[in-house]
Write a structure and sequence with these properties.
single chain, alpha/beta, Glycerol-3-phosphate (1)-acyltransferase, 7-stranded mixed sheet, 7 strands
Length: about 200
């Protein structure tokens, strides 16, 4: 119930307060669940991607956010998971055909530019065989950058959804470090290309 309520509220606020556009909806897999991966420039990002993707996404969030009582309550109600304890729960969610989402940069960028991706998303994809759906968010940094107390409303924000990226390896018992690094770079490049495509 809580998730649906927050989802409806997100749709109303995002579409009412910003000039919001979604590109590439047709790229979302129809026959399998997936891992959503996006650049991270603003606190708005999970709401923007959630509105764009439409299907339920279980998010992983920075552990520091759970120290704020209101945010902790919100995260708990939406079944979000803290960084550092999420690997096994996320793997299990994916095996239950649920969608998960994370920001591989780890934190919001301080200058709006894309930073290096961590390897968690690629590891999940290699372990579960689920595709990664890369998303590029543009305009969110201008609307609500790090250090701002309130967002600037009515600016243009776009979420671009890229083609699914399948990261597969021959042997599933152990994850090859080379495959892991190559997969991480591949995901980052997919997001980067969509950012600069706008």
């Amino acid at each position: 119930m809580w998730y649906r309520l927050f989802k409806l509220l997100s749709i109303v606020l995002v579409k009412g307060l910003f000039r919001f556009k979604v590109e590439g909806l047709g790229n979302l897999p129809e026959k399998t669940n997936f891992i959503v991966v996006a650049n991270h420039t603003s606190y708005l990002d999970p709401f923007l991607v959630g509105v764009a993707v439409r299907r339920r996404v279980y998010w992983i969030a920075q552990r520091d956010l759970y120290k704020v009582p209101l945010i902790y309550w919100f995260m708990k109600k939406t079944s979000s998971l803290p960084v550092g304890r999420a690997a096994e729960p996320l793997t299990e969610l994916l095996r239950q055909n649920k969608n998960v989402g994370l920001f591989p940069e780890g934190r919001r960028t301080h200058d709006g530019k894309l930073t290096e991706f961590r390897r968690g998303a690629a590891l999940l994809a290699l372990k579960t065989g689920r595709p990664i759906v890369p998303c590029a968010i543009t305009g969110a940094y201008q609307a609500f950058p790090v250090g701002a107390f309130f967002p600037k409303f009515f600016g243009e924000i776009t979420v671009r959804i890229g083609k699914p990226q399948f990261l597969l390896q021959e042997f599933e018992e152990t994850v090859d470090d080379v495959y892991l690094q190559e997969g991480t770079v591949r995901i980052q490049n997919a997001v980067k290309e969509m950012i600069y495509a706008g």
